[in-house]
Amino acid sequence: MPNTPRPPRRVTIPDVARHAGVGQATAARVLGGYGSSSAATRERVLAAAAELGYSTNAVARSMISGRTHTLGVVVADVENAYFARAVRGVTDVAAKAGLQVVLANSDEKGDTEKSAVQMFIERRVDGLVVAPAAADHEHLDKAVAAGIPVVLLDRALSGATLDTVVVDNRGAAEAAVSRFTEAGHTRIAVVTSASPDENATQLAPGADIWTTTERLTGYRRALRAAGIPRGAELIRHTGYDRTWARSAVLELMSSPDRPTALFTTDNVATLGALDALLDLGARIPGDVSVIGFDDAEWATLVRPRLSVVSQPVQELGGLAADILVRRINGSTARPRRHTLRATYVSRESTGPVPERVRPLRFPGETDGPASTDVGGRDGTPADTPRHR
Amino acid sequence: MPNTPRPPRRVTIPDVARHAGVGQATAARVLGGYGSSSAATRERVLAAAAELGYSTNAVARSMISGRTHTLGVVVADVENAYFARAVRGVTDVAAKAGLQVVLANSDEKGDTEKSAVQMFIERRVDGLVVAPAAADHEHLDKAVAAGIPVVLLDRALSGATLDTVVVDNRGAAEAAVSRFTEAGHTRIAVVTSASPDENATQLAPGADIWTTTERLTGYRRALRAAGIPRGAELIRHTGYDRTWARSAVLELMSSPDRPTALFTTDNVATLGALDALLDLGARIPGDVSVIGFDDAEWATLVRPRLSVVSQPVQELGGLAADILVRRINGSTARPRRHTLRATYVSRESTGPVPERVRPLRFPGETDGPASTDVGGRDGTPADTPRHR
DNA sequence: GTGCGGTTTGATAACGTTACCAACGAGCCA
DNA sequence: TGGCTCGTTGGTAACGTTATCAAACCGCAC
C-alpha cells in the first residue's frame, strides 16, 4: 500500500493524567469507569479529559479485554429486502446490548462467505450471524473453536452443531399449498429461485439452499396429502433473476393444461411470476390463484392483494442476536435449532378452480431464457435485484 | 456486566516462533508479510503456524498501525430499500479496498446518529459515511479533527466542509413535474414524507431532510416555469408511514377540483399514494398521472408501470466509499459536493389531462389520519416500512 | 586472514488500555 | 499507642502485534 499516512496522535490516558496531576492508573480508573476513586479526583480527571478532548481508544481496550463489542453478520445480499430486514433485526438487538454490527455480503458464494468469516475471526468479533451459502461448515467450526459463538440464520446446515434460527419452511409451504388443494386445485405449479438441482428430493441440505428445498418438500407433501400423483408436480427452478421467473411462468401458462394455481417460494420468483401473469392479462384468482413466500411491501399494493406466507424476518434476526448475546455472556447451553412460525396471510389472490380455461393474450414470444419486451415501456430497472 | 468470561487464549506469534525454533521478530516478519526472511525460515514458520492453527490478531495489528480497515456507515434505516442499496454500494467498494463496513441505523434521530458517530470515533474507524439526520455537524467535525474522513451521503449539510455525495434532487424533481406541465396539467399535487414544516421555502438545509426540501423546490420551480400561480400548489406533508400518504391522497382526490397529476417524493409516499388510487378505482393515467421518486423493484410490477425519477443509488454509495478510500490513502483535496444525475424513467403512468372528471368510488370514510379498512382483505403487513 | 556490502536475524521498545498489587492515609477499636 | 480495616492511589506488568536497531552471518574481493 503506497502512501498511507498514519492518523494524528491522539490524547491518551497518560496525557490526561499529567494534565490532571494524578497517576495514570487513577485517570484510567476514572475514564474507564472501573475501580474506585474519590469524587474530587474524579472531577479533576474528567475536567482534564474534557479540556484535552480525550476519547477512549476502543481498540486498545479490546486488545486487553479480548472483547470487541462487535457482531459479524454474513448475508447473501443486504439489498435483498429479506436480508435487509433480518440485518435490521440483528442490529437493533445488538445495539441494545452495546454491540455494533459489521456487515458482509456473500452473494451466495461459499468462498466469499468463508473469507468474510476468516476476517471476522481475525478481527475478533464477539459473535457471528451467518446465513450460510457454503455447503460445509469447517470455517464456522473454526470460529467456534476460536471462542466465537455462531448462529445460523434463515438456513440450517446438516451436521453442524450450531444455534440455528429458521422458520418452519416445510410446514408453512405445505399449509399454503394445502389452501390450493382444499379449494380443489390439482394443477399447482411452483416457481423457485435456485439452481436446477432436480433430484433435490433427496433432501441433501447444504447441497442447495436449504429453505428452497424445505419449501419444495412442503409443496410435495401437500400434493401427496391431496392424493395428487407425483407426475403432476409442476416445479420450475429459475436463477436468481426476476426475468427468469417471468419466462418460466410464461412457459407454464402457455401449456394447454396450464396450472390453475401458482406457488412462488421467494420474493424474486413472485415478482417475476406476477409480472408474467399481468402481461398475459391473466385474472387473479379468476384464471390462476397465486400465493407467494415472504410478505414484501408491494404484496398489498398489487391488485388483487397477494396472499402470502409471511415470515417474522426481523424477529429472526433479533433472536439470532439475542442468542449470541447470551452466549457472549457465558451461556453454554447446547446449541439448538429455533424454529419460528411462518404464517399464511390470506388476501385476495386465491380462489376456486376456474370453470373453464380462458385464453390469454400472449405476446410474440412465450418462452426462452431471454424475455422479450412487451412494448410500450421504454424503461426497465437497470439492476435486477437478486434472489429470495 | 455480570459474568462475561474472556475468550480462550489463542495462538500468538511467540507461540509460533517457539514452535518453529526462531525468534519472535522473525516469525512476526513472516506472518505479517513484511521485512525480509530466507525461504527456509519462511517455510518453517508457516508450517509451525499451520500446525498450531495461528491466525492474526487484527486488533493488535490495528493497535499499532492505527488503522482498523473499517468504515462506519450511518443511515436512517437499512430496511429501507434506498439505504439498503446505498449500503451495498459502499460495502462493495469498501471490500475491494480491504475495508469492512460497520452499520448503524439512526432512525432519522439526530441523537442516535451522534452516539453512533461517537462510537465510531472511539473504535477508530478509518472513514465514515453518514446520511445525516442531525441538523448540526459538530460530531462530524470532531471525527474529522480526530483524523477520520467523513462523507455525507444522500443529503447535504449547510456550513459543513465535508465531501458530499448527492443527486440533483431539485433538477430531477423539476424535470419530472415539467412532464406534467408540458402535458397541460395545472392541478399537480405532491405528496412528501416529511415533518410538516410549511415554510420550507426558506431552504434552511438541516432544518428538515434536505432531499425533501430540494425536491419540493424543484416542484415549485416547474409550476412557476409553467406560469401556474403559487396558490395552486398542492403540497401534502405526511409522516414516515405509508398509511398517512394513503390518507393524504384519499383526501386530495375527494376534492371537487381534484388534481390530475401526482408527484410523490419518496418510496413510502408512492406506496401509499398508489394504494389510495387503486382503492378509489382511479385510472392511471386516465384519471390521474403519477410520477414517483426512486425506482423501486415494484415500480415495474404495478400496472400501468410507474414512471419514476431514478437515482443511481448504488453508485452513490460506491462513490462515497471511493472518496473515503482516497482520503485514507492520503488525499487532501478540498472537500466538495459530488452531484450525480437522477434520471426520469418514462413508463405508462403519465398521460394527458383527462377531458372530464370521472367520479371515483369512495369507501365510507375518505380522510383522517387513520385509514379505514376497505374490506375484503384480512391481512395487512404487520410492519409498515419507514420513510423514503 | 582481513575487510566490506548485503541479507537475515532476534532483543527490545513501542501502541493505549486494563489488571494487579503494594503502599498510603484515615478512621476505628482495644 | 498499636493494630486493623477500608477506600484510594500509583507504579508496573500484561495484551499481541509492528518498528527499530544492532548483531550475526554470508560470500567475495583484497
From TrEMBL, chains A, B:
The keyword Translocase does not apply. PROSITE patterns: HTH_LACI_1, HTH_LACI_2. InterPro entries: HTH_LacI, Lambda_DNA-bd_dom_sf, Peripla_BP/Lac1_sug-bd_dom, Peripla_BP_I. One of its GO terms (molecular function) is transcription cis-regulatory region binding. Residues 11-65 form the HTH lacI-type domain. Keywords: DNA-binding, Repressor, Transcription, Transcription regulation. CDD domains: HTH_LacI, PBP1_LacI_sugar_binding-like. Residues 343-388 are annotated as: Disordered. PANTHER family: HTH-TYPE TRANSCRIPTIONAL REPRESSOR PURR-RELATED, LACI-RELATED TRANSCRIPTIONAL REPRESSOR. This is LacI family transcriptional regulator. It comes from Streptomyces misionensis.
